[in-house]
Amino acid sequence: MKPDGSQIILATALLAADLGTSQSCPDYSSHSKARHEPFSPGKHALSYARPIPACRTFNSSTIESLVANMSDVIADPDLHRLFENTYPNTLDTAIRWRGFAANNPEEELTFVITGDIDAMWLRDSANQMQSYLPVLEPDDGVDSIASLYRGVINLQARYLLTAPYCNSFQPPVESGIPPADNPGANKDTVVPGYDPAKVFECKYELDSLAAFLRVSVDYYEATHDAAFFGRFQWVSAVQAVLATARAMMRPTYGEDGAVLDSPYTFERQTTRATETLANDGLGSPVARDTGLIRSAFRPSDDSTIFQFLIPANMMFAQSLAEAVFIVQELGEGAPQGLADEMRTLSRQLREAITRFGIVPVVSGNGTAVETVYAYEVDGYGGAVLMDDANVPSLLAAPFMGYLAATDPVYQRTRARILSAKANPYFMTGPQINAVGGPHAGPGMAWPMASIVRILTSDDDEEIVGVLREILSTTDGLGLIHESVNSFDASRWTRQWFSWANGLFGQMILDLRFRKPHILQQSFQ
Ligand SMILES: *[C@@H]1O[C@H](CO)[C@@H](O)[C@H](O)[C@H]1NC(C)=O
Ligand SMILES: *[C@@H]1O[C@H](CO)[C@@H](O)[C@H](O)[C@H]1NC(C)=O
Ligand SMILES: *[C@@H]1O[C@H](CO)[C@@H](O)[C@H](O)[C@H]1NC(C)=O
Q1: Which long-range CB contacts under 8 A does 340-347 form with residues at least 24 apart?
Q2: Under a CB-based contact definition with an 8 Å cutoff, are residues 125 and 112 in contact?
Q3: Which of 60, 125, 316, 370 is such that its CA lies 20 to 30 A from the CA of 70?
Q4: Atom of ligand 1 at shortest distance to CA of 58?
Q5: Which residues partner with 362 through β-bridges?
Q6: pLDDT digits (tens, 9 = 90+) for 153-178
Q7: Angle subtended at Cα 506 by Cα 502 and Cα 507, rounded to the nearest 5 degrees
Q8: Distance from C-alpha of 87 to C-alpha of 260, rounded to nearest angstrom
Q9: For 492, phi and psi rounded to 5 degrees?
């Protein structure tokens, strides 16, 4: 979402009040908007954007050593600076509070803010953690990356048990941090209702549910610490996720044609069409018996046009299938039948995505027909042919592990996503060419989509070209912005977007193994 001025000011006040070293630490919302010396010794002269050590919100010697080691791996001084600034950004700036649950002194909690908005998103925090997956190791230490992960998983479980339809949450009471005001959401009418002291915003997004499974699977696959998942509220939270997903499979009409009650409706007083739902909060009708799960909003926090959002269904199917292994490891610690239920739902979802999510399009000269993945469908034959920059996206399908990048339907879909002729939200221009979306609007390309393009490409020329565009469009600030005008890189949104920063670092670490020669290249 786009913070308005009042939210930024509020975040500033709260941060200053809470950080121990508050007096001398600048608010990062302002710090990240100014250039700081020493500049990188290349033609982009990028700012040094990290806060001074005393003002960082988490210290990790592993990350420090990795950042230092990467100076040998990355030859270009500007590219190394961009990595150095971005990769630690969540640890440097967004670990807002860590502690233990009031009712269980063993239960770690980590409150991770998205950056310039003082709230924790399920999606962002799962992704913010994922950037540190390459350095995640089994570790009981309270100052480890593993501890941060456990704290995020525990807090997400609590959030999902509190308000499973919501996307963004307030600090846990144990932190003593007062809940943030969200002027944009104050007049929302949402079913089911929620407590604004606990919830920052309540947009139901299927990928938020998938994010909880994803961060859990990431932790489990790196540590094999199955016991952790039996200790606190994880199993109950998985059951809440499944119950919510099943409820959101309900179609608009019953067999007799009567309109069914929707478990979720959302209305906002707004001038932006993408901030509210059609049909008095219900959204556009969806057909019966598709096997797909609805999503009222996209990962951009914009409303869907058709509620069967295919990338979110892909991510949910994939994360669910991988989470089965955790449940199996729990043995008697998990309810009987839970693993089977998850496995079956995942398989049925994949079938539904193939059946309803792959659609014919007329291409080229108007006579040839080919099949591609739609971004959204309604099950009646309606399809939205586009991609949106946020993850999950169609572009990211191989990155999410849903399919192989060589999959022919994916390859055809990808070619259209990366074409201004076929994707209404592909931005082109002299500065940067990338997928955007309605959230920041036409003209605004999203570097996050450029990063995903690199992560899903094996083509050196494509990777180098896209990397060059990312590197040259930070407006000298050396951070990854949410969106950048494709004709004028001095026009951008969100100076402090920790997830996008982490994703850039994650992509560089991926290239280190996959394409080390590219990192040895000059970008001057
Ligand atoms: C991180 O380390 C610095 C010293 O290098 C210290 O001043 C700061 O308080 C530490 N931050 C945290 C969150 O422990
Ligand atoms: C950095 O390099 C040193 C020396 O080769 C090595 O011992 C250390 O493990 C590396 N750190 C990381 C995080 O890879
Ligand atoms: C249209 O393009 C397809 C391949 O893209 C080709 O097979 C077909 O012959 C073309 N039709 C005409 C009328 O040019």
Answers
A1: 341/242, 342/238, 342/242, 345/242, 345/245, 345/246, 345/320, 346/317, 346/318, 346/320, 346/321, 347/321
A2: yes
A3: 125
A4: 13
A5: 369
A6: 999 999 999 999 999 999 999 999 99
A7: 120
A8: 47
A9: -145, 170
Atom of ligand 2 nearest to the CA of 68: 1
Residue 478 gets the label, from left (phi > 0), alpha (psi -120 to 50) or beta, of left
Q: Name the residue with the closest Cα to ligand 3, atom 5.
A: 368
Task: List ligand 2's pocket residues with C-beta within 6 A.
Answer: 62, 65-66, 69
Q: How far is the CA of 66 from the centre of ligand 2 (A)?
A: 6
Instruction: State the amino acid at position 187 in one-letter form.
Output: K
User: Comparing C-alpha atoms, which of 58, 37, 60, 61 is closest to residue 49?
Assistant: 37
What pTM did the predictor assign?
Answer: 0.94
**56 CA to middle of ligand 1, Å?**
6
Shortest-distance ligand to the CA of residue 24: 1
Q: Which atom of ligand 1 is nearest to the CA of 95?
A: 13
Q: Return phi, psi of residue 59, to 5°.
A: -110, 130
Task: Measure Cα distances from 365 to 117, 361, 362 in Å.
Answer: 47, 12, 8
Per-residue pLDDT tens digits for 5-51: 333 333 333 443 344 445 589 999 999 999 999 999 999 999 999 99
Nearest ligand to the C-alpha atom of residue 370: 3
- According to DSSP H, which parts of 194-337 are helical? 206-223, 226-231, 234-247, 278-281, 310-330
Q: Are strands 383-384 and 483-485 parallel, antiparallel or unpaired?
A: unpaired
Q: How many residues does the chain have?
A: 524
